[in-house]
Amino acid sequence: MNVNSNWTVEQRYRRLEQITSHEVAEMESARVADSGFPSYHIAPKFGLLNDPNGLCYFNGEHHIFYQWTPVGPVHGMKYWYHLSTKDFVHFTDHGVGLEPGDDYDSHGVYSGGALVDNEQALLFFTGNKRDEDWIREPTQCFATMTAEGTIEKQGVIIENDHYTEHFRDPKVWKKDDQYFMVVGAQTPAERGSMVLYQSPDLETWQHKGPIKTRYQDFGYMWECPDFFEIDGKSIMLFSPQGVSSSNAYDFKNIYSVAYIIGDRLNLESMELEGHQDIIQPDYGFDFYAPQTYLDEQGRRILIAWIGLPDIDAPSVKNQWAGMLSLPRELRLEEGYLVQSPVAEIDELKGKKEVFSGTHVLNQTSFMLRLELESDEFSLELRNERGDKVIFSADENEFTLDRSQMSQNYAQEFGDVRKAPRLSKRQVIVVYVDNSVMEIFINGGRHTMTSRFFIDDLQLVSEQGIARACYYSMQPVTGLFD
Ligand code: FRU
């Protein structure tokens, strides 16, 4: 299925003001009619959402921006769409936060992160410009956001002097009065890398070069780099393209997400010293471009795009695509990043219903808490006709099987994903929201995040689960004005 292949470049690169109110109304009514549209996940009112951008805690609120193509459920002219929330339950819709249109971002305001500094939030982004021959000329740019919410673009701070046209997605932090920026880049030898810049004043940026690890030859491009510390360890998180693995678990999606934990970044040698092997945080079908930030409680929070570039999910026929993951708090445990939904999400939970065998769903946004004690179990989400998605395990591995859904897609990348099972006794938490599931396995050391498409989803059945609890989930509010 590829509804989107008919779109011309001219159509994709139309700006918001070139879409008629009639087109908007049609897109919105198609989205409203979609029973797969989520109720407690962030998704676009129409058009395509991709990467989370500019995540920060600023002026008493979490600010969440995302890449948005308003013209339809396709990749095209990118904007930053802006939401904020104090509690992840009530949101404020600020509409477009950053729009393209200057010479340096004539073809889109691409991804980047935020830094709160001197009573302002600095929003770093990539100016995506294409010349007459459609050659990309990316630059790293920034904008300021005041406490009153005024956002102003400040222009280009870093030109592309060292890399191919793939040079994007700045993420900035401050340490000891110095600013550091990582950018996702393709080296002239066409290898993916995370490159570092340093600045004393946000104006002059010194190119320090690629961060060195044992993964110098690992794919042709690394998108959406992030670099942060937890418990004194330095962590590189990024979205590599062009990687694969012969084991049953790793790098099965078109593009992947990986992290490397090291002892410290040596700014002289540019080495990530004392680093472990690379790890994949998620083993589902749809997880990409995660970004993290620190909030006022010192929590390191991760939000990812639930979707992938170059894959059209069935929701495109309802004129929308993509959603954001739940905000996940990160901790470091025994060499793994451990993810758990932030505590605020609990506020959305209804009362507990214990079930065994089959549970008839009274709504399709819910959470399951599953206590595992045996080697084997299975959990099915299905309709009365038998269309289903199956999550199961044996003693060694978890399996998520999407081969029998009502609407299948992206099958050229396989319709089964597997993850290692690190222990027999464990509690698994599954968040389901109409057409998305986020499964937290191995105590949060791994997740399996996936879209699924079952028409008239009605039943959950379990087999072999020691104790299964169902909780309804309430919708969040304020995502659309
Ligand atoms: C990742 C990505 C980024 C880029 C953005 C454009 O999904 O390709 O590298 O900045 O999307 O929307």
TrEMBL record:
<dbReference type="Pfam" id="PF08244">
    <property type="entry name" value="Glyco_hydro_32C"/>
</dbReference>
<dbReference type="GO" id="GO:0004564">
    <property type="term" value="F:beta-fructofuranosidase activity"/>
</dbReference>
<keyword id="KW-0119">Carbohydrate metabolism</keyword>
<dbReference type="InterPro" id="IPR051214">
    <property type="entry name" value="GH32_Enzymes"/>
</dbReference>
<dbReference type="InterPro" id="IPR018053">
    <property type="entry name" value="Glyco_hydro_32_AS"/>
</dbReference>
<protein>
    <recommendedName>
        <fullName>Sucrose-6-phosphate hydrolase</fullName>
        <ecNumber>3.2.1.26</ecNumber>
    </recommendedName>
</protein>
<dbReference type="GO" id="GO:0005985">
    <property type="term" value="P:sucrose metabolic process"/>
</dbReference>
<comment type="similarity">
    <text>Belongs to the glycosyl hydrolase 32 family.</text>
</comment>
<feature type="domain" description="Glycosyl hydrolase family 32 N-terminal">
    <location>
        <begin position="41"/>
        <end position="341"/>
    </location>
</feature>
<dbReference type="InterPro" id="IPR013320">
    <property type="entry name" value="ConA-like_dom_sf"/>
</dbReference>
<dbReference type="GO" id="GO:0005737">
    <property type="term" value="C:cytoplasm"/>
</dbReference>
<dbReference type="InterPro" id="IPR013189">
    <property type="entry name" value="Glyco_hydro_32_C"/>
</dbReference>
<comment type="pathway">
    <text>Glycan biosynthesis; sucrose metabolism.</text>
</comment>
<comment type="function">
    <text>Enables the bacterium to metabolize sucrose as a sole carbon source.</text>
</comment>
<keyword id="KW-0963">Cytoplasm</keyword>
<dbReference type="InterPro" id="IPR013148">
    <property type="entry name" value="Glyco_hydro_32_N"/>
</dbReference>
<dbReference type="InterPro" id="IPR001362">
    <property type="entry name" value="Glyco_hydro_32"/>
</dbReference>
<dbReference type="InterPro" id="IPR006232">
    <property type="entry name" value="Suc6P_hydrolase"/>
</dbReference>
<dbReference type="InterPro" id="IPR023296">
    <property type="entry name" value="Glyco_hydro_beta-prop_sf"/>
</dbReference>
<dbReference type="Pfam" id="PF00251">
    <property type="entry name" value="Glyco_hydro_32N"/>
</dbReference>
<feature type="domain" description="Glycosyl hydrolase family 32 C-terminal">
    <location>
        <begin position="359"/>
        <end position="464"/>
    </location>
</feature>
<keyword id="KW-0378">Hydrolase</keyword>
<keyword id="KW-0326">Glycosidase</keyword>
